[in-house]
Design goal:
This protein is α/β, with parallel strands linked by helices and about 375 residues long. It is built from 13 helices and 13 strands. The chain has 3 domains: about 100 residues; about 110 residues, Alpha-Beta Horseshoe (Leucine-rich repeat, LRR (right-handed beta-alpha superhelix)), CATH 3.80.10.10; about 120 residues, Ribonuclease Inhibitor (Leucine-rich repeat, LRR (right-handed beta-alpha superhelix)), CATH 3.80.10.10. InterPro entries: Leu-rich_rpt (IPR001611), LRR_dom_sf (IPR032675), RanGAP1/2 (IPR045203).
Length: about 375
């Protein structure tokens, strides 16, 4: 058991494999014996990188069942890796039965090859969840059938604040079922559905559902293929959520090689955001004509990256970076980048040279992950 990190604090039971560990009944009995306390006050379960066999799941079942009235968080990731489909589905059913009836605030089933069979194996647990605030299903093989099953099984997502569906093969039809979940999630603050094979039909359904949410703070739809049909519904969704503080658009911009105009004015993107947009625009985008990044708290760093990205575009006509925090020296530097093509640079008379970029110092690509 030297490859399993065990944390049994007052409120958490955590089993995490340093390397993938196949857990069978004998080892499970030894592991779970330490959790057999009648006054156990555990409220969180975390199993990761430990693959349960049916025997191990049977050992865990009564202990999990004894805790379910007090559990608020359950995290189960890579817990059936290497098992046959039939055994994996049986293990999921056993754990679901053990946890059925608990009132969770957080449920993570990320990094498991669930598919429809896996989702329905967790049917008992999902059907008993009406108070979920955070649901993570990333890299969980959420196909269209699995997405349909989730939308059918969870009775209420009214309290849901965080919903992450990244890196699945959801597709258009699956996105329509996710949209139904989103429509019922009136408290949603953080939504991610990146890299999920979603095209125009599913994209439109999804962004129209997001437009009915009014509390979004973070939105990540990158690396999908929504197409031009989703443009107006997405704009309406962004307008409906005035509290948005983080929207991942750079990858979307990079993918739109035929883009002619980009207006991200007044979004407080700061140097981090301006640099990401600059990188996205740097390659190809030869049809690009206008970029408006005014009033974004940009200093010389962001302005420099934007100028270098667009100054040599063959059809480019205007870069607007007015109303930012570019110093006088920075303005001179940006003008030097454009050289004899200064007509491509808009007015810079409303910049505050004493302004500061207050962007987070964290990695701009960083995200909370489960």
């Amino acid at each position: 058991m030297e490859n399993i990190l065990v944390d049994h604090s007052e409120t958490v039971i955590s089993l995490v494999g340093n390397i993938p560990v196949l857990l069978e009944a004998d080892m499970a009995k030894e592991l779970f014996r330490q959790f057999e306390h009648p006054e156990n006050s555990c409220s969180q379960i975390r199993f990761s990188n430990i693959s349960f066999g049916v025997g191990a799941a049977r050992v865990a079942e009564p202990i999990l069942s004894s805790l379910k009235q007090q559990l608020t968080e359950v995290h189960l990731s890579t817990f059936v890796t290497g098992r046959s489909e039939s055994e994996a589905v049986e293990v999921m059913g056993i754990l679901s039965s053990a946890l059925e009836g608990c009132s969770l605030k957080t449920l993570s089933l990320s990094h498991n090859y669930l598919g429809e069979k896996g989702v329905r194996a967790f049917g008992g647990l999902l059907k008993s969840q009406s108070n979920l605030e955070k649901l993570y299903l990333m890299k969980a093989n959420i196909t269209k059938e699995a997405a349909k099953a989730i939308s059918e099984l969870i009775p209420s997502t009214e309290k849901l604040k965080v919903l992450h569906f990244d890196y699945n093969r959801t597709g258009d039809e699956g996105a329509i079922f996710i949209a139904k979940i989103v429509e019922g999630s009136t408290s949603l603050q953080d939504f991610r559905c990146a890299t999920s094979w979603i095209g125009s039909k599913g994209g439109v359904a999804l962004v129209e559902a997001l437009g009915k949410c009014c509390n979004l703070q973070k939105l990540n739809l990158m690396d999908n293929m929504f197409g031009i049909e989703a443009r107006k519904p997405l704009a309406r969704a962004l307008l409906a959520n005035a509290g948005l503080t983080k929207v991942c658009l750079a990858e979307c911009v990079a993918a739109k090689k035929s883009l002619t105009k980009l207006n991200l004015s007044g979004n407080r993107l700061k140097d981090v955001g301006a640099t990401m947009i600059g990188r996205a625009l740097a390659c190809d985008h030869n049809q690009l004509k206008k970029v408006d990044m005014s009033q974004n708290g940009i200093t010389v760093e962001g302005a420099r990256n934007l100028a270098n990205a667009v100054c040599d575009k063959p059809n480019f006509t205007l870069l607007n970076i007015n109303g930012n925090c570019i110093s006088e020296e920075g303005i001179v530097e940006v003008k030097q980048i454009f050289g004899e093509s200064l007509s491509l640079l808009g007015p810079l008379d409303e910049n505050d040279p004493n302004g500061e970029d207050e962007s987070d110092e964290n990695d701009p690509n960083g995200e909370d992950d489960e």
